[in-house]
Amino acid sequence: MTDSIRISVDAMGGDHGPRVAVHGARLALKERKNTSFIFHGRSAEIAPLLEEYPELKPVSRIVHNDNVISMDEKPSQALRKGRNNSSMWAAIQSVKDGEADVAISGGNTGALMAMATFCLRPMEGISRPAIAAIWPTIRTDIIVLDVGATVGGDAKQLVDFSILGAALARALFDQEAPTIGLLNVGTEEMKGHDEVKEAARILGEASGAGFVYHGFVEGDDIGKGTVDVVVTEGFAGNIALKTAEGTARQVGTYIRNALKADIVSMLGAAIAGQALQALKRKLDPRNINGGVFLGLNGIVIKSHGGTDEIGFKAALGLGYEMARSRVLDKIGEGMRRFPTLTTQGSANDPEPEAKPA
Amino acid sequence: MTDSIRISVDAMGGDHGPRVAVHGARLALKERKNTSFIFHGRSAEIAPLLEEYPELKPVSRIVHNDNVISMDEKPSQALRKGRNNSSMWAAIQSVKDGEADVAISGGNTGALMAMATFCLRPMEGISRPAIAAIWPTIRTDIIVLDVGATVGGDAKQLVDFSILGAALARALFDQEAPTIGLLNVGTEEMKGHDEVKEAARILGEASGAGFVYHGFVEGDDIGKGTVDVVVTEGFAGNIALKTAEGTARQVGTYIRNALKADIVSMLGAAIAGQALQALKRKLDPRNINGGVFLGLNGIVIKSHGGTDEIGFKAALGLGYEMARSRVLDKIGEGMRRFPTLTTQGSANDPEPEAKPA
After folding, report:
1. Torsion of CA A205, A211, A216, A222, to 10 degrees
2. ipTM of this predicted structure
3. Helix, strand or coil for residue A4?
4. Using CB atoms, which residue from B149, B219, B250 is nearest to A239?
5. Among A117, A187, A276, which would you mutate to test the B interface (most chain B Cβ atoms within 10 Å of its Cβ)?
6. pTM of the predicted model, to two decimals?
7. Cα separation of B350 and B336, whole Å?
8. I need a surface site. Which of A216, A309, B21, B89 has the fewest CB within 10 A?
């Protein structure tokens, strides 16, 4: 099992208990054989599930923990109660201790972010972490961040997010110099907060250092795939993400209703069944499940709390790819190449250590 | 022509010149007979178009103006250059002078907002205007504002927008007490800016004064139609609107591609043709064209600059309904009923003038 990717799972997170996590792991293992799992949570509930999946059991280990962070707990409460002693914390701690390459939880997002930040700490030079979403577009998958870690944020933070997002694009999509766009509004009058304008200036000057700064993009540029990485603060990003999910679901409802409006439509839909099934898969939110916590000294993936084993499998697959592609190394690289973040270097001097004497 | 609704049209606004405006008016007149039009712009271009539509000509008047505000002019420039002397300004001035009930332009949004604000002035008690979108949902049409007039905004502004949105819902949808939701993010940790929290407190206390305060809503609640009015500041609102448009277009592309993937799918699509046509109409952005400027002493509608006559017709129809339903009166009513905005009244005293001696 050389080079196996070791995934630490908070088996108690999510609305549906450990079955989703364990069943999801079984499906993920089918797709990526060289994976091993550590399941954190109530052993009495997890062990019988592993018995059901003989192919999963040999690559799995259970670390018992009785304490479960509930979905409605406030992050500060969760941290007080569950620090050092909850399935969620233990899953993250496995990454810190080097026992796992990535941690995954379907639990309370705020609690997970608080614990991950507290346990793994922000990377040097990064002020606050972000949550990145892998967003399907007409062109190809792109990255949108922050979709919900921080409300507001200054120019420095938006620049940090750009470095993080570019590194993720380099890692996941194998792009040498991904294009970056700053999410903004359209009308000339109001073009953006001061923070967005200042971030644009910094990114414009640094363009070329591992990314290409494209300029401002608007909400409809996300679905078009105008750039590889869309950067914004967490409030607008979360609203964009949720609004897109809502719209996709809304249009899905329209399609279903239209195609069962009368017998002729139903016949047509039956004949075009395969195409419509493919479409349904494409619109299935479970297949794009998983928010990536970026900017910490370790990788943590948030799975949607309400998802099933198909969705959890997708989040595990994402975690696997994050670990395999060495995203943390790529972030470090990106930071070293970024001119204004290195106190000693300049735009033409990617190695700050190489300062002339 | 008693009770005819008089629409003032900036015939030179938009990407495609006066043909779209005049042709759109002809289509709008077919749907709503008791409409009359004032077309502002270059007479030499507009007059020949009216000759083409003999049914439109008798209810139309041309007010010549040579100056056209271009799409890329900055609002401040546009205001300097076009104040008192441009087709855009003249269209708004007609409303101010009482010659028209509503003004419509497909021109530069920032310039239109600047000119409308300068010419019509904000209503007493309203600090800044908002742009409201009529948003189709699974349940029914709802109102989302602000979708692009102001970046940022304090609690008072969000409360103002709530009063404006509720009045628009009462006017357009004939709802006695529309439900209001404040757009926010999901995770407990970061629940909103301080401004959103403070606005929630004020709205909670005032709930019942012409609206029902529902609480926070998330991006996916928009498409679900969870509330009748979704309130947010212009940055997040614009991003939500554009992201939804982009997502709808993206899913539309998926549908088209799926249904022409092979001969069987094409056959099925042909048979379900009527249903798919209905679906296409439902997803057609032209049918929901028109942003409403709210909070000024007069009604102005922004039509999408790139739309065609079908889209312009929709914006004209929206303007007609706004005028017919006396939305300005309803806003005034809503403000008088709102407790914290009346310095002399209280929640139980909707008539501030009736102060006990």
Report:
1. -170
2. 0.86
3. coil
4. B219
5. A187
6. 0.88
7. 6
8. A216
